[in-house]
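Please annotate the following for my students:
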Amino acid sequence: MHTDLSDLSPVVAATAQWLTRSFPAPGGALAAALCEVQARQAVTVAAWLRYPTAMDAALVALAGPGGSARLDWVTGADTPGAGEDGEGDAWRTWVDEVVASWAACLLADEDLAHRAVAALPGAAPTEFRRLLSPDAGDRRAAALLRHPDLLAPVAGLHHAHLRTRLDPDHTLTA
């Protein structure tokens, strides 16, 4: 069975928030909610893949995931004045760069998302319907969040590691 989500809830919440702020939903409150659900589902799958045991989750809770600094730099959010609301940005310390990158990969590639969910012991695809089978409303709400070209700088950071995690027996060739 995968890690209890409560062990990873600060990482999931912060990383999903980072994704939805970096790739916001066009439109109103409904679009924002649909976008957030998709981000949370992708981040949850990525977090469970990255931290598959209770020990892994406990270690990240103890040491911290690293924060959003590199992600902010890659997306250009590190410009002067960005994110300077003091303690209001403390959540950024709980953003996990690898989890964000893997979630971006899953949001941009439905086949990869299906493989990732299938790799989670005990996970039902219905738990991740908006990630795996988004309808037209989901796609409109997450137009930026699912755009492969926009996600490429973030997804590219750890795409190879995700592929290795999903296919550990893959033989590398020179």
The chain has a mean pLDDT of 90. The CA atoms of residues 65 and 96 lie 5 Å apart. The two ends are 36 Å apart (CA to CA). DSSP finds nine helices and no strands in the chain.
